[in-house]
Amino acid sequence: MTRPILSTLFISLALAAGFAHADDGVTIAFQTGVDPSKVAQANGDYEKATGKKINWRKFESGAEVITAVASGDVPIGNIGSSPLAAAASRGLPIQTFLVTGIIGESEALVVRNGSGINKPTDLVGKKIAVPYVSTTHYSLLAALKHWQVDAGKVNILNLRPSEIAAAWQRGDIDGAYVWEPALGKVKANGKVLTSSAEVSKWGAPTYDLWIVRKDFAQKNPEFLKQFVKVTGSVFERYNKDPKGFAADAANVDKIARLTGSKPEEVSLLLPGNRYPSLKEQSALLQKPFVKAVSDTSAFLKSQGKVDSVQADYSPYVTNQFINAALR
After folding, report:
1. How far is CA 219 from CA 22, 89, 142, 191, 298, in A?
2. 56-74 confidence digits (pLDDT tens)
3. For residue range 176-204, what is the model confidence (pLDDT) as tens digits?
Protein backbone atom coordinates (compact mmCIF):
# COMPACT_ATOMS: atom_id res chain seq x y z
CA MET A 1 0.00 0.00 0.00
CA THR A 2 2.87 2.45 0.58
CA ARG A 3 4.69 1.81 -2.67
CA PRO A 4 5.08 4.81 -5.05
CA ILE A 5 2.32 4.98 -7.62
CA LEU A 6 4.54 5.37 -10.69
CA SER A 7 7.86 3.73 -11.32
CA THR A 8 10.76 6.03 -12.05
CA LEU A 9 11.27 3.83 -15.10
CA PHE A 10 8.37 5.67 -16.71
CA ILE A 11 10.32 8.90 -16.68
CA SER A 12 13.40 7.49 -18.34
CA LEU A 13 11.17 5.88 -20.96
CA ALA A 14 9.33 9.13 -21.50
CA LEU A 15 12.48 11.10 -22.14
CA ALA A 16 13.59 8.73 -24.86
CA ALA A 17 10.24 7.99 -26.42
CA GLY A 18 8.66 9.39 -29.54
CA PHE A 19 4.95 9.19 -30.25
CA ALA A 20 2.56 7.16 -32.36
CA HIS A 21 1.64 9.53 -35.14
CA ALA A 22 2.66 8.33 -38.57
CA ASP A 23 1.02 7.13 -41.75
CA ASP A 24 -0.67 4.37 -39.76
CA GLY A 25 -2.59 6.97 -37.75
CA VAL A 26 -2.76 8.25 -34.20
CA THR A 27 -3.12 5.80 -31.33
CA ILE A 28 -5.42 7.00 -28.55
CA ALA A 29 -6.01 5.28 -25.22
CA PHE A 30 -9.54 5.30 -23.86
CA GLN A 31 -11.23 3.74 -20.84
CA THR A 32 -14.64 2.29 -20.04
CA GLY A 33 -16.13 5.29 -18.25
CA VAL A 34 -19.60 6.31 -19.44
CA ASP A 35 -19.73 9.77 -21.05
CA PRO A 36 -21.40 11.37 -24.09
CA SER A 37 -18.20 11.56 -26.15
CA LYS A 38 -18.31 7.80 -26.61
CA VAL A 39 -21.10 8.46 -29.14
CA ALA A 40 -18.79 10.68 -31.20
CA GLN A 41 -16.10 8.01 -30.92
CA ALA A 42 -18.47 5.30 -32.15
CA ASN A 43 -19.65 7.51 -35.03
CA GLY A 44 -16.12 8.18 -36.27
CA ASP A 45 -16.57 11.91 -35.69
CA TYR A 46 -13.00 12.38 -34.45
CA GLU A 47 -11.59 10.84 -37.62
CA LYS A 48 -13.82 13.00 -39.83
CA ALA A 49 -12.88 16.21 -38.04
CA THR A 50 -9.12 15.57 -37.87
CA GLY A 51 -8.72 13.81 -41.21
CA LYS A 52 -6.59 11.21 -39.46
CA LYS A 53 -6.97 7.51 -38.90
CA ILE A 54 -7.32 6.88 -35.16
CA ASN A 55 -6.38 3.60 -33.54
CA TRP A 56 -8.51 3.44 -30.39
CA ARG A 57 -7.02 1.22 -27.69
CA LYS A 58 -9.09 0.28 -24.66
CA PHE A 59 -7.41 0.22 -21.24
CA GLU A 60 -8.77 -0.83 -17.86
CA SER A 61 -7.13 1.80 -15.68
CA GLY A 62 -5.35 5.12 -15.69
CA ALA A 63 -2.16 3.44 -14.47
CA GLU A 64 -2.06 1.34 -17.64
CA VAL A 65 -2.70 4.40 -19.80
CA ILE A 66 0.12 6.30 -18.09
CA THR A 67 2.49 3.41 -18.77
CA ALA A 68 1.59 3.46 -22.47
CA VAL A 69 1.92 7.25 -22.70
CA ALA A 70 5.24 7.21 -20.85
CA SER A 71 6.64 4.57 -23.19
CA GLY A 72 5.71 6.61 -26.25
CA ASP A 73 3.31 3.98 -27.58
CA VAL A 74 0.36 6.34 -27.10
CA PRO A 75 0.44 10.17 -27.42
CA ILE A 76 -3.09 10.83 -26.12
CA GLY A 77 -4.83 9.10 -23.23
CA ASN A 78 -7.99 9.23 -21.14
CA ILE A 79 -7.24 9.08 -17.40
CA GLY A 80 -8.48 10.41 -14.08
CA SER A 81 -7.16 13.27 -12.00
CA SER A 82 -5.43 11.01 -9.49
CA PRO A 83 -3.20 9.24 -12.05
CA LEU A 84 -2.57 12.64 -13.59
CA ALA A 85 -1.37 14.00 -10.24
CA ALA A 86 0.89 11.00 -9.75
CA ALA A 87 2.34 11.21 -13.27
CA ALA A 88 2.88 14.97 -13.04
CA SER A 89 4.56 14.53 -9.65
CA ARG A 90 7.01 12.18 -11.38
CA GLY A 91 7.67 14.74 -14.12
CA LEU A 92 6.07 12.90 -17.02
CA PRO A 93 6.05 15.26 -20.06
CA ILE A 94 2.27 15.52 -20.40
CA GLN A 95 -0.51 18.11 -20.26
CA THR A 96 -4.20 17.92 -19.50
CA PHE A 97 -5.97 19.57 -22.43
CA LEU A 98 -9.62 18.57 -21.95
CA VAL A 99 -11.93 17.43 -19.13
CA THR A 100 -14.40 14.65 -19.98
CA GLY A 101 -16.29 14.70 -16.72
CA ILE A 102 -16.52 16.01 -13.19
CA ILE A 103 -17.01 12.69 -11.47
CA GLY A 104 -20.07 12.08 -9.34
CA GLU A 105 -22.16 8.97 -8.78
CA SER A 106 -20.58 7.11 -11.69
CA GLU A 107 -17.85 5.96 -9.26
CA ALA A 108 -18.88 4.47 -5.95
CA LEU A 109 -17.82 2.39 -2.97
CA VAL A 110 -20.09 -0.66 -2.90
CA VAL A 111 -20.14 -3.18 -0.05
CA ARG A 112 -21.49 -6.70 -0.33
CA ASN A 113 -24.88 -7.55 1.15
CA GLY A 114 -24.27 -9.71 4.20
CA SER A 115 -20.66 -8.54 4.62
CA GLY A 116 -21.44 -6.94 7.97
CA ILE A 117 -20.50 -3.50 6.65
CA ASN A 118 -23.26 -1.07 7.61
CA LYS A 119 -21.20 1.99 8.48
CA PRO A 120 -17.70 3.29 7.69
CA THR A 121 -16.07 1.91 10.84
CA ASP A 122 -17.17 -1.59 9.76
CA LEU A 123 -14.61 -1.39 6.94
CA VAL A 124 -11.80 -2.16 9.41
CA GLY A 125 -10.43 -5.62 8.68
CA LYS A 126 -12.49 -6.03 5.50
CA LYS A 127 -11.20 -6.69 1.98
CA ILE A 128 -11.89 -3.66 -0.20
CA ALA A 129 -10.72 -3.77 -3.82
CA VAL A 130 -9.74 -0.75 -5.90
CA PRO A 131 -7.50 -0.17 -8.93
CA TYR A 132 -4.37 1.54 -7.65
CA VAL A 133 -3.42 4.87 -9.23
CA SER A 134 -7.07 5.56 -10.05
CA THR A 135 -9.58 8.24 -9.11
CA THR A 136 -11.43 5.62 -7.06
CA HIS A 137 -8.25 4.82 -5.13
CA TYR A 138 -7.84 8.49 -4.28
CA SER A 139 -11.55 8.79 -3.41
CA LEU A 140 -11.41 5.71 -1.18
CA LEU A 141 -8.44 7.08 0.76
CA ALA A 142 -10.09 10.50 1.01
CA ALA A 143 -13.32 8.93 2.27
CA LEU A 144 -11.48 6.91 4.91
CA LYS A 145 -9.71 10.06 6.07
CA HIS A 146 -13.04 11.91 6.24
CA TRP A 147 -14.53 9.08 8.28
CA GLN A 148 -11.42 8.97 10.49
CA VAL A 149 -10.90 5.32 9.61
CA ASP A 150 -7.23 4.25 9.53
CA ALA A 151 -6.54 3.07 5.96
CA GLY A 152 -3.82 0.80 7.33
CA LYS A 153 -6.51 -1.18 9.17
CA VAL A 154 -8.51 -1.80 5.99
CA ASN A 155 -7.33 -4.61 3.73
CA ILE A 156 -7.14 -2.61 0.48
CA LEU A 157 -6.47 -4.83 -2.54
CA ASN A 158 -5.08 -3.63 -5.87
CA LEU A 159 -7.32 -5.15 -8.56
CA ARG A 160 -8.26 -4.05 -12.06
CA PRO A 161 -11.99 -3.57 -12.77
CA SER A 162 -12.33 -6.93 -14.53
CA GLU A 163 -10.53 -8.61 -11.64
CA ILE A 164 -12.85 -6.85 -9.18
CA ALA A 165 -15.90 -8.24 -10.98
CA ALA A 166 -14.43 -11.76 -10.92
CA ALA A 167 -13.37 -11.52 -7.26
CA TRP A 168 -16.83 -10.23 -6.33
CA GLN A 169 -18.50 -13.15 -8.11
CA ARG A 170 -16.27 -15.61 -6.24
CA GLY A 171 -17.03 -13.92 -2.92
CA ASP A 172 -13.35 -13.06 -2.35
CA ILE A 173 -13.90 -9.38 -1.45
CA ASP A 174 -16.22 -7.47 0.85
CA GLY A 175 -16.38 -4.24 -1.12
CA ALA A 176 -15.02 -2.30 -4.06
CA TYR A 177 -14.63 1.32 -5.16
CA VAL A 178 -14.91 1.18 -8.94
CA TRP A 179 -16.59 2.42 -12.14
CA GLU A 180 -18.52 0.77 -14.97
CA PRO A 181 -18.89 -1.93 -16.11
CA ALA A 182 -17.67 -3.51 -12.85
CA LEU A 183 -19.78 -1.06 -10.82
CA GLY A 184 -23.04 -2.43 -12.19
CA LYS A 185 -21.94 -5.99 -11.44
CA VAL A 186 -21.11 -5.33 -7.79
CA LYS A 187 -24.25 -3.26 -7.28
CA ALA A 188 -26.35 -6.30 -8.19
CA ASN A 189 -25.91 -7.73 -4.70
CA GLY A 190 -24.35 -4.84 -2.84
CA LYS A 191 -25.15 -1.40 -1.51
CA VAL A 192 -23.47 1.95 -2.06
CA LEU A 193 -21.66 3.21 1.03
CA THR A 194 -20.59 6.43 -0.67
CA SER A 195 -19.94 7.86 -4.11
CA SER A 196 -17.49 10.33 -5.60
CA ALA A 197 -20.25 12.94 -5.57
CA GLU A 198 -20.19 12.86 -1.76
CA VAL A 199 -16.39 12.62 -1.57
CA SER A 200 -16.20 15.74 -3.75
CA LYS A 201 -18.34 17.61 -1.22
CA TRP A 202 -15.88 16.53 1.47
CA GLY A 203 -13.13 18.41 -0.38
CA ALA A 204 -11.68 15.78 -2.72
CA PRO A 205 -13.13 16.30 -6.22
CA THR A 206 -12.08 14.02 -9.04
CA TYR A 207 -12.14 14.40 -12.81
CA ASP A 208 -11.93 12.34 -15.98
CA LEU A 209 -9.72 14.01 -18.56
CA TRP A 210 -7.57 13.76 -21.66
CA ILE A 211 -3.80 14.10 -21.50
CA VAL A 212 -1.36 14.56 -24.37
CA ARG A 213 2.38 14.16 -24.62
CA LYS A 214 3.96 17.60 -24.94
CA ASP A 215 6.03 16.60 -27.98
CA PHE A 216 2.89 15.50 -29.83
CA ALA A 217 0.99 18.63 -28.80
CA GLN A 218 3.70 20.95 -30.08
CA LYS A 219 3.65 19.30 -33.51
CA ASN A 220 -0.10 18.67 -33.85
CA PRO A 221 -2.09 21.65 -32.52
CA GLU A 222 -4.72 21.42 -35.28
CA PHE A 223 -5.42 17.76 -34.49
CA LEU A 224 -5.99 18.61 -30.82
CA LYS A 225 -8.15 21.62 -31.65
CA GLN A 226 -10.44 19.46 -33.79
CA PHE A 227 -10.47 16.73 -31.12
CA VAL A 228 -11.62 19.30 -28.57
CA LYS A 229 -14.28 20.71 -30.91
CA VAL A 230 -15.83 17.27 -31.47
CA THR A 231 -15.96 16.59 -27.73
CA GLY A 232 -17.37 20.03 -26.98
CA SER A 233 -20.07 19.57 -29.60
CA VAL A 234 -21.34 16.27 -28.20
CA PHE A 235 -21.23 17.66 -24.65
CA GLU A 236 -23.32 20.60 -25.85
CA ARG A 237 -25.87 18.20 -27.33
CA TYR A 238 -26.06 16.29 -24.08
CA ASN A 239 -26.28 19.36 -21.85
CA LYS A 240 -29.09 20.88 -23.91
CA ASP A 241 -31.27 17.79 -23.47
CA PRO A 242 -29.78 15.20 -21.05
CA LYS A 243 -32.96 13.15 -20.84
CA GLY A 244 -33.43 13.09 -24.59
CA PHE A 245 -29.80 12.13 -25.18
CA ALA A 246 -30.04 9.27 -22.69
CA ALA A 247 -33.42 8.17 -24.05
CA ASP A 248 -32.02 7.78 -27.58
CA ALA A 249 -31.47 4.04 -27.96
CA ALA A 250 -28.80 4.56 -30.64
CA ASN A 251 -26.73 6.78 -28.31
CA VAL A 252 -27.08 4.36 -25.41
CA ASP A 253 -26.18 1.31 -27.51
CA LYS A 254 -23.03 2.98 -28.84
CA ILE A 255 -21.85 3.89 -25.35
CA ALA A 256 -22.72 0.41 -24.06
CA ARG A 257 -20.67 -1.28 -26.78
CA LEU A 258 -17.59 0.83 -26.09
CA THR A 259 -17.75 0.59 -22.30
CA GLY A 260 -19.09 -2.92 -21.72
CA SER A 261 -21.98 -1.55 -19.65
CA LYS A 262 -25.58 -2.64 -20.07
CA PRO A 263 -27.82 -0.13 -21.90
CA GLU A 264 -29.97 0.39 -18.81
CA GLU A 265 -26.82 1.14 -16.78
CA VAL A 266 -25.69 3.71 -19.36
CA SER A 267 -28.97 5.61 -19.05
CA LEU A 268 -28.59 5.72 -15.28
CA LEU A 269 -24.90 6.61 -15.24
CA LEU A 270 -24.81 9.41 -17.81
CA PRO A 271 -26.31 11.87 -15.28
CA GLY A 272 -23.79 10.62 -12.70
CA ASN A 273 -21.11 13.02 -13.92
CA ARG A 274 -21.15 16.62 -15.08
CA TYR A 275 -19.80 17.45 -18.53
CA PRO A 276 -18.58 21.07 -18.59
CA SER A 277 -18.90 23.14 -21.74
CA LEU A 278 -15.77 24.34 -23.53
CA LYS A 279 -16.38 27.84 -22.19
CA GLU A 280 -16.48 26.45 -18.63
CA GLN A 281 -13.39 24.37 -19.32
CA SER A 282 -11.42 27.37 -20.54
CA ALA A 283 -11.74 28.82 -17.04
CA LEU A 284 -11.51 25.48 -15.25
CA LEU A 285 -8.21 24.52 -16.88
CA GLN A 286 -6.41 27.37 -15.21
CA LYS A 287 -6.08 28.00 -11.47
CA PRO A 288 -9.05 25.82 -10.32
CA PHE A 289 -7.79 22.65 -11.98
CA VAL A 290 -4.16 23.33 -11.17
CA LYS A 291 -5.16 23.67 -7.52
CA ALA A 292 -7.11 20.38 -7.67
CA VAL A 293 -4.07 18.57 -9.10
CA SER A 294 -1.80 20.18 -6.52
CA ASP A 295 -4.15 19.21 -3.67
CA THR A 296 -4.44 15.66 -4.98
CA SER A 297 -0.66 15.34 -5.23
CA ALA A 298 -0.16 16.62 -1.69
CA PHE A 299 -2.70 14.11 -0.42
CA LEU A 300 -1.04 11.26 -2.31
CA LYS A 301 2.32 12.22 -0.82
CA SER A 302 0.82 12.27 2.67
CA GLN A 303 -0.40 8.74 2.03
CA GLY A 304 3.01 7.59 0.76
CA LYS A 305 1.80 7.11 -2.82
CA VAL A 306 4.30 9.51 -4.39
CA ASP A 307 7.76 10.42 -3.16
CA SER A 308 7.61 14.15 -3.85
CA VAL A 309 5.43 16.88 -5.34
CA GLN A 310 6.02 19.64 -7.87
CA ALA A 311 6.30 23.25 -6.74
CA ASP A 312 3.94 24.21 -9.58
CA TYR A 313 1.52 22.01 -11.55
CA SER A 314 0.49 24.64 -14.09
CA PRO A 315 2.92 23.26 -16.75
CA TYR A 316 0.81 20.08 -16.71
CA VAL A 317 -2.43 21.85 -17.59
CA THR A 318 -3.35 23.87 -20.69
CA ASN A 319 -6.48 25.48 -22.11
CA GLN A 320 -4.67 26.37 -25.34
CA PHE A 321 -6.58 23.92 -27.51
CA ILE A 322 -9.94 24.70 -25.91
CA ASN A 323 -9.42 28.39 -26.58
CA ALA A 324 -8.42 27.60 -30.18
CA ALA A 325 -11.59 25.55 -30.59
CA LEU A 326 -13.72 28.34 -29.14
CA ARG A 327 -12.27 30.83 -31.61
Report:
1. 12, 24, 38, 48, 32
2. 999 988 999 999 999 998 9
3. 999 988 999 999 999 999 999 999 999 99
Give me the numbers of helices (H) and strands (E) for the chain, helices first please. 17, 11
Using alpha carbons, list the distances in angstroms from residue 149 to 125, 126, 325.
11, 12, 45
Question: Which class for 53: exposed (0-12), middle (13-18), buried (19 or more C-beta within 10 A)?
Answer: exposed
Say how far apart CA 237 and CA 247 lie, in whole Å.
13
Closest-CA residue to 220 (of 65, 83, 50) = 50
Distance CA 56, CA 35 (A): 16
Peptide bond into 276 cis (omega under 30): no
Of the chain, the end-to-end C-alpha distance in Å amounts to: 46
> Residue 26's pLDDT is what?
97
Percent share of the chain, pLDDT over 70: 93
Q: Taking the CA atoms of 152, 158, 164 and 167 in sequence, report the sign of the dihedral they define.
A: negative
Beta strands in 73-220 (DSSP E): 76-80, 94-102, 108-112, 127-130, 155-158, 175-178, 190-195, 207-213
Please provide the size of the chain in residues.
327
3-state DSSP of 253-280:
HHHHHHHCCCHHHHHHHHHHCECCCHHH
The stretch 125-143 carries a mean pLDDT of 94
Please state the pTM of the whole predicted model. 0.86
How many whole angstroms separate alpha carbon 208 and alpha carbon 244?
Answer: 23
Count of C-beta atoms within a 10 Å radius of residue 115: 18
Report the C-alpha gap between 214 and 156 in whole angstroms. Answer: 34
Mean pLDDT over each residue of the chain, to the nearest integer: 91
For 271-323, write each residue's pLDDT tens digit: 989 999 999 999 999 999 999 999 999 988 988 889 999 999 999 999 999 99
pLDDT for the residue numbered 23: 59
Which residues does residue 128 pair with via DSSP β-bridges, in sequence order?
156, 175
The contacts of residue 149 (CB under 8 Å, 6+ apart) are 120, 121, 123, 124
